[in-house]
Amino acid sequence: IFIKLRGGENMRLELGYVLINDVQFGEVTKIEKGVLFVNKSELINLIKEDEHLKSVDVEIARPGESVRITPVKDVIEPRVKLEGEGGIFPGVLSKVQTVGSGKTNVLKGCAVVTTGKIVGFQEGIIDMTGPGADYTPFSKLNNVVLVCEPIDGLKQHDHERAIRFAGLKATQYLAEAAIDIEADTVEVYETLPLLQGINAYPDLPKVAYVLMLQSQGLMHDTYVYGVDAKQIVPTVLYPTELMDGAIISGNCVSACDKNTTYHHLNNPVIHDLFKQHGKEINFVGVIITNENVYLADKERSSDWTAKIAEFMGLDGVIVSQEGFGNPDTDLIMNCKKIEAKGIKTVIITDEYAGRDGASQSLADADKAADAVVTGGNANEVIVLPPMDKVIGTLDYSDIIAGGFDGSLSKDGTITVEIQAITGATNEMGFNKMSVTGF
Asked: 252 an active-site residue?
C-alpha cells in the first residue's frame, strides 16, 4: 500500500447536496421537488438477483413516524459520481481507482438502512420517534429500509456479504436518480499534496486525523478500497477519498459505536478539521490504521501510525476509535506512541462505565491520554416504548448487545442499554452525547 502523490495536482472535490424532504413509492425512481420516488418492485428485483437471499422487501420510515427498525445492520447515504476518477465505493461496486476528486452528488436527508434476520448479535435499533430517536441521528432521515432474509443454512460471512452488497446496490440505484439533478447547495473540499500543503500555511500547526478502523476478529470487518482492513498496514488518505466511499462498514460491532458506512461518508472529524483549515490549523491528511487481536499486530500498527505522524512532521493529531474493550488498547498505544514523538494527541472514545457510571470507563489507560473527548456511557439504560410499526423483527431484542433476557415486554416495550441504539455513542462524535467531569 502506498501513497499516490499527484505532481502538483490538488485533490479537489465538489459535493452537490440534493435535498430530500420525503421518500415515496412511485412508478418511476426519480427526484422531483425534493421528493425521492422509488419504484419498489424494480428495487426488489435488483436486490433479489443475489442467490443468497430468500426474500427481499422495501419499506419507508420517515422522521416522527411511530416506526422501529431492528435489527439494523448498516446505514448508507446515496451518492453518485458526476465527474472525476473512479466511482462511488471503489473496489466494491466501482473499479479500483483513487477517488476523492471531481464532482459527486449527495442525496442529503435520506439513507438506505439494511435489516432482517440477525447477522451477528451486535446489531441495533433505530426508533423514528420517542426517547430512542433522540439518541440516533438516523431518526432524522427519510429511510429506505431493506428487509432481507437469507436462504436457509447460509453461513454468517456469506450472510453479511449479501446484506452488505444489498445495501450498497440499493444506494447506487437510488443515487443514480440524482445524475441530472442540479444540487441545492455545493460544498468544495480541497487538499494539496503534502509538501505544498505544508508550505501553504507555514505558521499554522500541522494536524492530521488518525482514523482507527474496526478489524478486530471475526465479523469485525471494515473495507478500504475493497480490502479488509485486517490486511492493511497504516497508510495515508486524502480526506475526500472517504467522501466518495473509499471506506465502508462490514462489521457487526455494538450498534452504539459502530461506524456505519454513512458515518464514513460524513465523517464529522474530517468536516470539522476542514472548517478550521487555513484558519487555526493546517489539516494535512488522514492516517488510517486498524484494530487488532494479537499483541504483535497491535504493536506493528501503532508503531507505524506514530512513525507516519512523525514522518509527516505533524504538530497534532486527533485519534478516533471504533468499538470498545480490546480496541481500547490499540487506542492507548496509538496515543502514547504519538505523544512520545512530541506530537499533541486528542483521543475520541466512548465509555462502558456500568449502568451506574461507577466502573472504569476504558479497558486501558495511560498518563499520555490527557486530552479525551467521550461520546457518553453506553451502559446507560433506556426504556423504549412500543411503536405502531416494526420494520424487521423484535425477535432478537433480548440477545443484541445492550439487551438482556427480559428486555422485550409483551406490549413491545424494550428496556435496553443505549448500547443497542445505532449511533448512540459514536466515537467520531456523530451524536449528541457526552460526559461532564466532576
From this structure: yes
